[in-house]
Specification:
By secondary structure, the chain is of the alpha+beta class. 28% of the residues lie in helices and 10% in strands. The protein has a domain of 121 residues. The relative contact order is 0.11. Bound molecules: heme C (HEC) (4 copies).
Length: 203
């Protein structure tokens, strides 16, 4: 009996420490936790504004890559280098007359040109403002430079379309599966050409 009375405060302490441990390990996104030099747990409340780090492309942590289906290229256009590796790159802003005549830029076109997004020397790559070259399967990084809010929503599945198990592998549609990168405002991507019958003459 006596030992039980003595043990009671001890049990209580153990229980309290356990509860404290639970609280400390349940991560709150709005709190920063660390141990000071004496080993004491310090919890600092952060306001929402403090948690929102300013978007700086050059300080960007390398994004994880997202599984995406094949980029929606027109038949036969990729790799671009099949033509461009033998051509002299022309960074001049102009109306294209020899090829790509269907591409007319209506996307903040006053501020930029093709080669702000397409790398001038290696046409098989896209280019970020930092100068970093990315693959077409990562074009969301390009869009995310200016449409940071939509990019954030896309990553968590609020904007765009994500398929797969809720807790398993997911596949994301690229921004360009839904938006024409050259003319996003007025119409969606042009429909794919119909499949060619085997044996049919190629243009
Ligand atoms: C806002 C960035 C941006 C600008 C500016 C831009 N492009 Fe693109 N372009 C893209 C992206 C992203 C794709 C990839 C689409 C895809 O994955 O199918 C693309 C695709 C293409 C394609 C392949 C189209 C197809 O039918 O599959 C060609 C050709 C092209 N761009 C040429 C140009 C030319 C020429 C210009 C300038 C008149 C230009 N682009 C301006 C981002 C841009
Ligand atoms: C069948 C050949 C061919 C393919 C494939 C091709 N291009 Fe082109 N591209 C051309 C020609 C020809 C021009 C020059 C058009 C003009 O000056 O009127 C051009 C011009 C461009 C330009 C303007 C800048 C420059 O150097 O003249 C961009 C940007 C461009 N192409 C991007 C692409 C991209 C991106 C792809 C792949 C998705 C691609 N091209 C695939 C033939 C091609
Ligand atoms: C350099 C900055 C920049 C980049 C990179 C960029 N955009 Fe834009 N985007 C703009 C601006 C500015 C506008 C509004 C003005 C306009 O449409 O001309 C716009 C407009 C849009 C709109 C239309 C919004 C409306 O008013 O309906 C869509 C959709 C869009 N962008 C998608 C994309 C996609 C997809 C990509 C990647 C291929 C991309 N943007 C890359 C700057 C950018
Ligand atoms: C599954 C198709 C789909 C995908 C993928 C998608 N979008 Fe959209 N997006 C839409 C539709 C539909 C709208 C118009 C309705 C709306 O505002 O939500 C839209 C609207 C927008 C607008 C204009 C919003 C406004 O405020 O006027 C921008 C900018 C945009 N998307 C950028 C992006 C970017 C950047 C990505 C990739 C990170 C992306 N979208 C991926 C379908 C898509």
């Amino acid at each position: 009996m006596k030992t039980l009375i003595l043990a009671r405060p001890l049990l209580l302490t153990v229980a309290l420490v356990f509860v404290q441990f639970l609280v400390a390990t349940t991560c709150h996104a709005d709190r920063e936790k660390f141990f000071d030099s004496s080993g004491k747990l310090i919890v600092v409340e952060k306001s929402a504004a403090e948690l929102l780090r300013p978007y700086e492309i050059k300080n960007r942590k390398s994004e994880k890559t997202f599984p995406v289906p094949r980029p929606p290229f027109s038949e036969g256009i990729f790799p671009c280098s099949q033509c461009h590796s033998g051509m002299t790159p022309n960074p001049q802003r102009r109306v294209l007359t020899d090829y790509h005549t269907e591409i007319v830029l209506h996307h903040a076109e006053g501020q930029r040109w093709c080669t702000d997004c397409h790398n001038l020397l290696d046409r098989d790559k896209l280019r970020l403002v930092s100068g970093e070259l990315i693959d077409f399967s990562e074009s969301y990084l390009l869009c995310g430079q200016c449409h940071g809010d939509k990019f954030r929503d896309w990553k968590v599945g609020v904007h765009g379309k994500r398929t797969g198990d809720w807790n398993g592998d997911k596949q994301y549609l690229l921004c360009v599966h839904c938006h024409n990168p050259h003319d996003p405002k007025f119409k969606s991507l042009k429909p794919m050409p119909p499949p060619q019958r085997p044996g049919e003459a190629k243009h």
